[in-house]
Amino acid sequence: MEIKQLTEPQIELLRKPLPKEAVKPHPTKTFLSSIKAIYVVERLNDVFGIGGWYANNEVVKQDGKMVVVKSTFHAPEYGILIPDIFGGNDNADLGDAYKGACTDALTKIGSYLYIGMDVYKGLSDKDEKPPAKPAPVKKLKVPTDDEFNQLLNRVEKEGEPVITKAKEYYTFTTDQYTALQQKAKLKTA
């Protein structure tokens, strides 16, 4: 079989931005977007034809509800092979986790073929969203003597996690921080 070359119209179709309804906010990482896999399938069918491409998925890890697959994409008529693309999913329904891992890998494969590149570059929603406002800056204060003594007592009882949490509310002098660290070390010793 003679290997075909992608035509300019096919490459343009691969690069064409996905419709806005193809992109949704990532379910757990709100600063990211996610591409609905069916739009990638549709674009691959439009470019390579139905049955003109396929992906082999191999489960490489299934731990609890987490499933990780390694996927290899094939478009044989065009000699296109994209191996070892990983996808993962931790859906509580194990069947959905397997499917989700495969579609996660497929959307990543799409990015190797230009599909959704504008999303990965952060360009897809540039005109639709106002610029994000920076998070308000928390003004931290140095703890009073009473507050600091209470912290020392808690660190002595509970250890390092108290210091980690306290750093969200207070800024410490060097002497205070050293004292807290020493109390934490005593707790673990």
SSE blueprint:
Elements: H1 8-15, E1 23-25, E2 33-35, H2 37-48, E3 54-63, E4 66-75, E5 80-89, H3 94-112, H4 117-120, H5 145-158, H6 160-166, H7 174-188
Antiparallel strand pairs: 1-2, 3-4, 4-5
Helix pairs in contact: 1-2, 2-3, 5-6, 5-7
How many DSSP E strands? 5
- Give the topology string: H per helix, E per strand: HEEHEEEHHHHH
Q: Count the domains.
A: 2
Helix proportion: 40-55%
Strand portion? 15-25%
Q: What is the first-to-last residue Cα distance?
A: 71 Å
Radius of gyration equals: 26 Å
Number of helices: 7
Shape: elongated
Segments where pLDDT lies below 50 for 5+ residues? none
Question: Biggest β-sheet, characterized?
Answer: 3 strands, antiparallel
CATH third-level topology of the largest domain: Enolase-like, domain 1
CATH class of the largest domain: Alpha Beta
Describe the structure in your own words.
By secondary structure, the protein is α+β, with helices and mostly antiparallel strands. 42% of the residues lie in helices and 19% in strands. The strands form two sheets. Strands 3-4-5 form a three-stranded antiparallel sheet. β3 and β4 form a beta hairpin. The chain is elongated, with a radius of gyration of 26 Å. The mean pLDDT is 86.
